[in-house]
UniProtKB/TrEMBL annotation:
The lineage of its organism: Archaea, Methanobacteriati, Methanobacteriota, Stenosarchaea group, Halobacteria. The keyword Nucleotide-binding applies. This is Thermosome. Pfam families: Cpn60_TCP1. Belongs to the TCP-1 chaperonin family.
Length: 525
């Protein structure tokens, strides 16, 4: 129905008849309900005993995961407020690589607490102010929980293991994968920073996940352009081309009439000469291995194979960039411009067959600045989830190494946050105190969910955790097989980067307060 206002006794139409408008409490309730529903969809995946979700799209493709960002992105979410919770997980994933479920669940619970306050006639602006003040207190609490010890390899291994515990890691334990993750990050770390982009993950179906290994270089999903080419080249000089090593064709369709055998032979000779020229130019350049984004004619490939040159054709642009970056090569767009200064280098390039796939391994030398975690698994679902778990672990280890700050996991940091916020809330005047206290109640969702997912009564666990925190200063839910105890997470190697907790608090608060402030939704149809 059209929205209208009266002006001088005459109606003035503002919105079209196709628009839908929801205002006031109805708009707030609708948005909060949508945000809570999305957060609830990932809540049961939290922690070492978290469950997986099976997501089936309209085409029948299946994704099995407990990664919060993946679940939310795979879901067909249309409600705009619910999309904002998805953005929370995306932001968390982009900034620190893990904690996506925590951030989404916290945002949903902040909305739930805000809904209760709104029903008590607490104004949305007061809630927003209280939440922002509580978030500042939360950041102070996180700083107080930072471990004073230096972040060494043992702590980094604990960070990686904590990140992967409860995720699908195939036949491998999180502990064994953590060693690989730390080795990979240490390989690309300098005194100044961590070149996280220099660590890639390559998946390959067809073996047990126990075959997962770290490759000092890169892996390209390509096979040699000719069967007669060498399968291995050591101390390789590498050319990366954007050149088609085939007979040039015009952009315009044209036909040429050949009236005699002499003309035909001349055309064949010209074509042969062109192809031979390509082969000779490449061979004379001194390159041992050639990667090109374009096609290579069979005759050129044969000639280069006879010269002992290994060639890979039809690379995607991203693969070509990766090879050039890893080996130090410069991409060349014209064969006549190819010089030795354009070459990259590697200690060894070899090809291996895995089932029906051939892979090229570029290892050592300049290429060793980049490392690849070569992930194996028996099925596509296994390697996909392994890739997600390892990717998150690489991110959090890089984050922990760069910041040098880790905090206790297992819900201990959240217990500390809630305790400090309640303590500080007593000194806050007016209704804003209600919002600050509500923030603390929302943070409790993390240890409550961890307890619920381990089979413990969440209320009893929360009471015990608070008591242990008051007496010991740190208390988390430690899962060891079927046994769940309350203890200091640092003593059991359950640690998280401090930045993961900070980002979760900040992004969840930002999304929740933005949604709470909305009291008018106008949707065009």
């Amino acid at each position: 129905m059209a929205q209208q206002r009266r002006m001088g006794g005459q109606p003035m139409f503002i919105l079209s008849e196709d628009s839908q408008r929801t205002q006031g409490r109805d708009a707030q309730s609708s948005n909060i309900m949508a945000g809570k529903a999305v957060a609830e969809s990932v809540r049961t995946t939290l922690g070492p005993r978290g469950m997986d979700k099976m997501l089936v799209d309209s085409g029948g493709d299946v994704v099995i995961t407990n990664d919060g960002a993946t679940i939310l992105n795979e879901m067909d979410i249309e409600h705009p407020a619910a999309q904002m919770i998805v953005e929370v997980a995306d932001s968390q994933e982009e900034e620190v690589g893990d904690g996506t479920t925590t951030a989404a669940v916290l945002a949903g619970n902040l909305l739930g607490e805000a809904e209760d306050l709104i029903e008590q006639d607490v104004h949305a602006t007061t809630i927003v102010e209280g939440y922002h003040e509580a978030a500042e207190i939360a950041l102070e609490a996180i700083a107080e929980q930072v471990n004073e010890a230096d972040v060494d390899d043992e702590i980094l291994r604990q960070v990686a293991e904590s990140s992967m515990t409860g995720k699908g890691t195939g036949g491998l334990t999180a502990e064994s994968l953590a060693e690989t993750v730390v080795e990979a990050i240490r390989h690309v770390a300098t005194d100044d920073d961590v070149a996280r982009d220099n660590v890639t993950v390559h998946t390959q179906v067809g073996a047990s996940s126990n075959a997962t290994e770290l490759v000092p270089g890169i892996i390209v999903d390509e096979e040699p352009a000719h069967d007669g080419m060498p399968s291995e080249v050591e101390d390789a000089s590498i050319a990366v081309l954007d050149v088609e090593l085939d007979v040039r064709t015009g952009d315009v369709d044209a036909e040429y009439a050949i009236d005699s055998i002499d003309q035909l032979n001349a055309a064949i000779d010209a074509e042969e000469g062109e192809l031979q020229g390509y082969a000779e130019t490449v061979a004379d350049s001194g390159a041992d291995v050639v990667f090109t984004t374009e096609d290579v004619a069979d005759r050129v490939a044969t000639a280069l194979a006879n010269e002992g040159i290994l060639v890979f054709e039809g690379l995607g642009d991203s693969d070509a960039r990766q090879v050039a970056s890893a080996t130090g090569a410069r991409r060349v767009g014209d064969l006549e411009d190819l010089e030795t200064d354009d070459f990259g280098s590697a200690d060894r390039i070899h090809t291996e067959a895995f089932g029906g796939d051939d892979l090229a391994f570029v290892e050592g030398g300049a290429a060793a600045e980049t490392v690849t975690v070569f992930v194996r698994g028996g099925t596509e679902h296994v390697v996909d989830e392994l890739e997600r778990a390892i990717g998150d672990a690489l991110d959090v280890v890089a984050t922990a190494l760069e910041s040098g700050e880790v905090v206790p996991g297992a819900g201990a940091t959240e217990i500390a946050i809630a305790d400090k916020i309640r303590e500080e809330a007593a000194g806050i005047e007016g209704r804003k105190q209600l919002a600050v206290t509500a923030f603390a109640d929302a943070v409790d969702i993390v240890p409550r969910t961890l307890a619920s997912n381990t089979g413990r009564d969440p209320i009893d666990a929360l009471v015990d955790l608070r008591a242990a925190h008051e007496s010991e200063g740190r208390a988390g839910l430690i899962t060891n097989g079927d046994e769940v105890t309350i203890d200091d997470p640092f003593e059991h190697g359950v640690v998280d980067p401090a930045d993961v907790k900070r980002e979760a608090v900040e992004s969840a608060t930002e999304a929740a307060t933005m949604i709470v402030r909305i009291d008018d939704v106008i949707a065009a149809e």
